[in-house]
Amino acid sequence: MDQHLQVFITVAEKQNFSRAAEELHMTQPAVSQYIRALEDSMGIRLLERTNKYVQLNKAGEIVYHHAKEILGLYTKMQNLIDDLTHKAKGDLKIGASYTFGEYVLPHILTDLQQQYPEIEPAVTIANTATVAELVTSHQLDIGIIEGGFKGKELIEENFAEDSMVIVVSANHPLARKEVVTISDLENERWVVRENGSGTREATENVFQQLLFLPKKKIVFSSTQPIKEAVEAGLGISLLSKWAVQKEIRNKDMQILPIKGLPFFRQFSMITKSRFQTKALEVFIELLRTSESLILRG
Questions:
Q1: Interval 58-117: pLDDT, tens
Q2: pTM surpassing 0.70?
Q3: What are the C-alpha distances in Å from 123 to residues 106, 131, 215, 273?
Q4: Are the C-beta atoms of residues 174 and 168 closer than 8 Å to each other?
Q5: Residues contacting residue 255 through CB under 8 Å, at least 6 positions apart
Q6: Mind giving me the DSSP string for 97-149?
Q7: Is the pLDDT of residue 292 over 60?
Q8: Which of 86, 53, 66 is nearest to 5 (CA)?
């Protein structure tokens, strides 16, 4: 049945039998046969077909969601069995929220590959809420997030501290002020992350801590365009010190000296099950010993 589910997932994602067949290295009639067999076993049609594409119907959406979870569990089970006789190797599905995924994780993966070259990591970068959802549904082995997580289904462990600072362009008027007031911050345009992001959560906490709300905000869905916007003079932002270290060093940005900052938050790892593959075990151990690397930022 796992092969039927894999074929179904591929057809659903490619929205086309021919492209799915090419991806799976199968003939199109074979793909069609797998889909018919799955629909017969379910007793319901799962795909709406046209001449140009196929699309999930309501039943298909239900099967697709659970099929992804089932195959994730199947892969994890197989890896755990393989680990009884083999060293750390194989797939490792990692999710990370943007700050950690873009600016910290590449350094840790370099260490992982040097020590365990047979581990094959696959990385998904998304906001905290999405990473948590993918870990919950077994589509990721581990998630690395910024800030607190309130879900009860997942196992959470803090492993390092991140410092966050308010940054402006080096050419911004506030960069030339010796004393920056709360009124100054309130009147500036703030460039912020979207809701569900760990960085947005930290930003809202700082607004509460400093007792103000900005009059103008503009939202971006990742850290890199926020940095570009700040550097271009569009506004100011609260960002991880790790994310802006190059810009600060090159004097393209400046940290504002604000009483009560930097704001500290935790980098946390989240997992679904206490049963872990050897690949996941060694990666977690690497995370636990990586704080000195992280704090160098």
A1: 999 999 988 888 888 887 787 777 666 667 888 999 999 998 999 999 989 999 999 889
A2: no
A3: 10, 11, 37, 19
A4: yes
A5: 165, 166, 167, 241, 244, 248
A6: -HHHHHHTHHHHHHHHHHH-TTEEEEEEE--HHHHHHHHHTTS-SEEEEES--
A7: no
A8: 66
